[in-house]
Amino acid sequence: MALLLSMAAVLAGLYVYFRPHPALAPPPAATHAPPAGDANPAAPPRAEFELKLAGGELASGPAVIQVVRGTEVTIRIRSDRADELHLHGYDLHARIGANEPAELEFKADKSGRFEYELHGSHQELGALEVRPE
Question: Closest Cα to residue 102, out of 111, 112, 110, 92?
Answer without folding.
Answer: 92
